[in-house]
């Protein structure tokens, strides 16, 4: 037995997953050559900007606002509020913090801006490089808000997802953004976006993964996402975007919900716990373990865990716990967390999804 079993398991999983990603490159090239419709992935004939300057105004301003002299948390708030048009409430929900904290971060960002020299219209290569991770984070949050929106009557905002993909594509095709992190982020966006046509029913209600008609998924989008994911494996860095894109790929490639390789998804979450730990990732890890080993094992992951108050008060936390307790037959805890989830739910479509999954009356 290794001296550090946790580190050893992480290394084994990491090596295996990176190896499989690299093996996809050749297979995907063959798929692309045989496809009836040309895929506009990283090897397409679209113009690739090799100049140092970023030509898109919004993308350029993202780099300007992500100034390293501004604290990272304030950079994100400034970009989301000023450039992406998010409300304070939307930013708070997306970052799992209070609106008061968002106001403070925005104030710090504006205070820092006043002390900085005015923007002269050009950034150096070093500035682009140092600010790229922050820009990627903003684009990730922009896409995430579109994928499952905090808007009361728009649970999905496709226009935000499309804009995030557009900007990330420009970045990935530009010399400053051609790295494994940006490629993996773009892969994640395409793989998630490919399922968009099946995520709502005819009345606009949200559908769970197991309820979705996989025939409606955008197969071209999946191939593009897989191609970017394979390309991202050529680097020597494995980021949270790699892991999340890998999870999305497992969902997209499974012929049915029953055939999802949950053991692979659990491995990705183990890596995420090492490289980008968060309370939300731990919750998702518990869900994956529950699918692989049973709901009791999923609950065991969360036993004794104290999430941040902003997450524990969200419908996501309560809904997962209600579902796991329901599957375990824990009636009292199911009712408790289900009621909390309904109370915290942000929109009628989310409430309806919870009602369909958890029921609407006390379980007895």
TrEMBL record:
It comes from the Bacteria. Residues 131-232 form the DUF6596 domain. One of its GO terms (biological process) is DNA-templated transcription initiation. Transmembrane segments: none annotated. GO terms for molecular function: DNA binding; sigma factor activity. InterPro entries: DUF6596 (IPR046531), RNA_pol_sigma70_r4_t2 (IPR013249), RNA_pol_sigma_r3/r4-like (IPR013324), WH-like_DNA-bd_sf (IPR036388). Residues 68-113 form the RNA polymerase sigma factor 70 region 4 type domain. It holds the Pfam family Sigma70_r4_2. This is Sigma-70, region 4.
